[in-house]
Specification:
Layout (H helix, E strand, L loop, with lengths): L4 E7 L3 H15 L3 E3 L8 E6 L4 H13 L1 H6 L4 E6 H6 L1 H6 L5 E3 L7 H9 L4 E3 L7 H4 L11 E5 L1 E2 L10 H4 L4 E2 L2 H13 L4 E5 L7 E2 L2 E2 H8 L7 E5 L8 H9 L6 E3 L7 H7 L5 H14 L4 E8 L6 H14 L3 E6 L16 H24 L5 E9 L5 E5 L5 E5 L8 E9 L4 E4 L23
Parallel strand pairs: 1-2, 1-3, 3-4, 4-5, 5-6, 7-10, 10-13, 14-15, 15-16, 19-21
Antiparallel strand pairs: 8-9, 11-12, 17-18, 17-20, 18-19, 20-21
Helix pairs in contact: 10-11, 11-13, 14-15
């Protein structure tokens, strides 16, 4: 019996790419491939790419350049590029990097086994269509291996918002929501394989709508699954934070008290130039409602600094918004033009100005994150044990507010939710101690130690 072929897959970018990589592993597993963590041992290498920022795309070409030597040593080695860079650049990838054998877009990876069979015959294959069929109907069931304690589940893809800086509508297509029955079945399957927490994914996840099902209704149905203790969702658009979804944060105990809601700028003028379809006042009203419904909810956001036309007064409004709300965590980046987007041809702000503004914003956001983490010290909170740490006897878990907790307790088992006392706040993590208290049977929500919020 011949040895199984080996698949090495590298994932760039967002959680949706992590989920897509897992499904590509399932697809190739059904064709006899096993995964390997040793790239030199692989028969097939897949780079599952992200195209949101310029440096992410260039990193893919850098990694391909480093694979030239391996390809030369192993002529039968197959190399593929998947994901959003594949969708955006298509055959140009093979022209620029002839070592690449196949290019597959994010909507066609269910065809990956057939593509690989063609490349094994010496053909170069590019498939970046937006097919009429639902790729999820053609993917095999998840592998029967244990699932991660915290699992991802894609429920929605694409975006119809067309923000002027964003490539997602062009690389992922229009908004499409999966049928609720299929999502519930996949969630049950993940729980049966050991998942305790599920994060629902979508480019615009709170736009989920399928056959009279909203995201709030879907979360309510998922909450009834025995063994599923925690539910999260990301990433959301402020325009789609409906009243029933806001209410779900107060009504559904399994929905964790954290929300990632990108605002991008604190200036209405810049938001209009970005085509964000909301104003600052819309955003703050949503936050006010959430804080009333769920006191102590941890808020995170995204910011683009130095968007074309941004003046110092616009940036000052962004800083003021951050001061007003107080984010538990945030991601901030200088604007980089993406080819094909409406903003790409606009006159850019001087790089040194963008960098200086970014530094100021990141300093403020870092201080807010440190304050939020410090407010947890001395509290005992439910921590989901996820994995072993790097040090002997160390375990790593997650609070309801998405912070990693490191604790020394080698006897703990992955998947347990335990009361852990937070004893120290480090730069990006917390340190905790577990004293053998009886295991919690359900999530508990002592949210009384929130960070700074809008006064209500």
């Amino acid at each position: 019996m011949s040895a199984a072929k080996k698949l090495f897959i590298k994932t760039y970018g967002c959680q949706m790419n992590v989920y897509d990589s897992e499904r590509m592993v399932d697809a190739m597993g059904a064709s006899g491939y096993e995964t390997t963590t040793d790239v030199s041992d692989a028969d097939l290498i897949l780079l599952n790419t992200c195209h949101i920022r310029e440096k992410a795309g260039e990193k893919v070409y850098s990694d391909l350049g480093r694979l030239r030597k391996l390809k030369k040593a192993k002529p039968d080695l197959l190399i593929g590029v998947a994901g959003c860079v594949a969708q955006a650049e298509g055959a140009e990838i093979i022209r620029r990097m002839p070592i690449v054998d196949l290019v597959v877009g994010p909507q066609t990876y269910h065809r990956l086994p057939d593509m690989v069979r063609k490349t094994e015959l010496g053909l170069k294959v590019v498939d970046t269509e937006f097919p009429a069929e639902d790729k999820f109907d053609f993917l095999p069931r998840h592998a029967k291996t244990p699932a991660s304690v915290s699992a991802f589940l894609t429920i929605q893809e694409g975006c119809d918002k067309f923000c002027s800086f964003c490539v997602v509508p062009y690389t992922r297509g229009q908004e499409v929501s999966r049928p609720a029955a299929k999502i519930l079945a996949e969630a049950q399957e993940l729980v049966d394989r050991g998942a305790v927490e599920i994060s629902l994914l979508g480019q615009n996840v709170n736009a989920y709508a399928n056959d009279n099902w909203s995201l709030a209704k879907l979360i309510g149905a998922l909450a009834k699954i025995d063994g599923l203790a925690r539910i999260r969702y990301t990433t959301s658009h402020p325009k789609d934070m409906s009243d029933d979804l806001i209410a779900a944060h107060g009504d559904i105990e399994k929905l964790m008290p954290s929300l990632h809601l990108p605002v991008q700028s604190g200036s209405d003028r810049i938001l209009k130039a970005m085509n964000r379809q909301h104003r600052v006042a819309d955003y703050t009203r949503t936050i006010e409602k959430l804080c009333r419904i769920k006191p102590g909810i941890a808020l995170s956001s995204d910011f683009i600094v130095g968007f074309p036309g941004e003046e110092e007064s616009d940036f000052a409004q962004t800083m003021a918004l951050c001061e007003e709300i107080g984010f538990a965590m945030a991601y901030s980046f200088v604007y980089s033009p993406r080819p094909g987007t409406p903003a790409a041809g606009r006159e850019e702000i001087e790089a040194s100005v963008k960098t200086e503004r970014l530094h100021r914003l990141q300093q403020l956001l870092s201080n807010q994150q440190m304050q939020f983490q410090q407010s947890m010290v001395g509290k005992t909170m439910p921590v989901l044990i996820e994995k072993q740490g790097r040090e002997p006897g160390q375990m790593v878990g997650k609070t309801p507010w998405l912070h990693s907790v490191h604790l020394v307790a080698s006897e703990l088992t992955k998947g347990q939710i335990l009361p852990v006392e937070i004893v120290r706040s480090d730069k990006n993590t917390l340190a905790g101690e577990y004293h053998g208290t009886k295991r919690l049977d359900k999530p508990y929500s002592d949210n009384s130690f929130a960070g700074k919020q809008i006064p209500l």
